[in-house]
Amino acid sequence: MVSPLLRVAAFLSLLLAFSTAQAADKLTVGTDWRAEAEHGGYYQALATGLYAKAGLDVTIRQGGPQVNHSQLLAAGKLDISIAPNSFIPLNFVEQKVPVVAVASMFQKDPAVLIAHPGQGNDTLAALKGKKIMISPDTRIGFWRFLKSSYGFTDDQIAPYTFNLAPFLADPKSIQQGYITSEPFQIERVGIKPVVMLLSDAGYTSYASLVVVPRKMALERRELVQRFVDATILGWASYLNGDPTPANALIKRDNPDMTDELLAYGRDKLKTYGIIESGAATSRGIGAMDDARWKAFFDVMAADGLYPKDMDYRQAYTVDFVGKGVGR
Questions:
Q1: Cβ–Cβ under 8 Å, residues 164 and 188
Q2: Fewer CB within 10 Å, N or C, the chain?
Q3: Mean pLDDT of the chain
Q4: Cα–Cα distance, 10 to 190 (Å, whole number)
């Protein structure tokens, strides 16, 4: 017969084991825009329990036009931020803010320029000297690439307010967009637009970068690794498995999102190799290269955006990626 004391001890041991198993690390993650297919891997990891299996209690906070998650990360209000391009981590270095990119879920930036068909605006070279609608953020983003590589000038800039009406009204108009969204909206009104993916024209920025405080990357490496690995598995599942779990959460966070647009966005992510191309094909989703970071920095430093002697290597670390996770 088991004594009452032993039964109590056994019960307490089970309770402690249960409590330990339930004590997941809490992380708040801020995305770079409102919930959409471009965030599918993060939502898939949440919806299918991949984060939970990694011992993580993740909350995803969607971004938007009035939300600056980079600033919230720097201020300690977020644990992790998803940066849209390589400029963000480099800007942090220049501003001496101690954060670092630990993975790049997109090998290609999905940024595009969009023009009407039949107007002779079929290549980036043909757009030199013509008005192009871009946002203020883009002026210090891929516009710098277009200036340095294609001779674009600032007097070409026209304001873009994320409203397609001016583009649809003028067949001569040209605007920025993403391969996963604006072309879909334009096609729905019967126009088959000319779409130029900048990453296929020499623009080497990474995208969907996982950015964390440097202190976390140094002192909580195992935690960061768990998040990166679970996110990689989330992206592999979203692209090559059933995306329904993620899409349900995306639509919950962003009621304006439709099944049709989500399917379109996911298809473009796959078709254009936004995630599974380049280094990701051999070393796994999320991989980054020192040489590519250097090449991107050198172009932007030559254009005067950054001091040429800035230590760009402080912007990222490749320690957490390139291990074949999810292949």
A1: no
A2: N
A3: 93
A4: 70
What is the C-alpha to C-alpha distance for residues 238 and 103, in angstroms, rounded to an integer? 18
| Residue ranges covered by each domain of the chain | 23-108+205-315, 111-201
Tell me the one-letter amino acid at 127. Answer: L
> Is the C-alpha dihedral spanning 11, 13, 14, 20 positive or negative?
positive
User: Sorting pLDDT into bands at 50, 70 and 90, what band is 19?
Assistant: very low
Cα 51 to Cα 41, 101, 133, 185: the distances in Å are: 11, 19, 39, 33
Q: CATH for 111-201?
A: 3.40.190.10
Q: Do domains 23-108+205-315 and 111-201 have the same CATH topology?
A: yes
Q: Report whether pLDDT(41) > 50.
A: yes
pLDDT of residue 22: 57
The β-bridge partners of 57 are 26
pLDDT in tens, 77-118: 999 999 999 999 999 999 999 999 999 999 999 999 999 999
CA-CA-CA-CA dihedral for 306, 310, 313, 316, to nearest 10: -50
- For residue 35, the SS3 value is coil
Domain 23-108+205-315: CATH architecture, name and number where available:
3-Layer(aba) Sandwich (3.40)
